[in-house]
Fold this protein.
Amino acid sequence: LKAIASCDTAKFMGTWFVIGVKPTVFEKTCSNAVENYTLTDAKKGHINIDFQYNKNVPIESPIKALPQQGWVQGSDKSNSGEWKVSPFPLVKLPYLILDTDYDNYCVIGYPSRDYVWIMGRTPQMKKDLYEKLKTDLVEKHQYSLEGLRDVPQVWTEAERKKRGLTIKEIPDTMLAA
């Protein structure tokens, strides 16, 4: 499994909503999953990752957090699709950016293909784009989509505010009635 040849680290930073996932143990029932990336040291390629989600049912179940650290790999820390991510001290896992257009979506892979994340800049993704990204996973990256789950993203104005998200990240048109 190969990451994209180049990924502008600065453009990748910001908020990403998990739309689809071949989950880790923490994500098997999650909803309203959001990852926020902050570049803390551009020269060294250090990134803080704030990962928050509802344990089960959107809004109603407890909010969980799994803060992580990331490190851009390679000689050019400003432009690499290969990262390492640490959800726990002393553990650095491969994090391969397979595709992104920075403004709308990204797809993150794992070498064994046991895990994958399809994320968007907003909590809703156009169905045709989501289907294309899933097709690309199978055809370009030899993924099996068995076990892929759609992550419920149901937001209210109060939940958006509670999580510190903005109207740009979750437009009013994407809020539940």
About this structure: Strands lie at 14-22, 31-41, 46-54, 63-65, 68-72, 82-86, 93-100, 105-109, 116-120, 149-150.
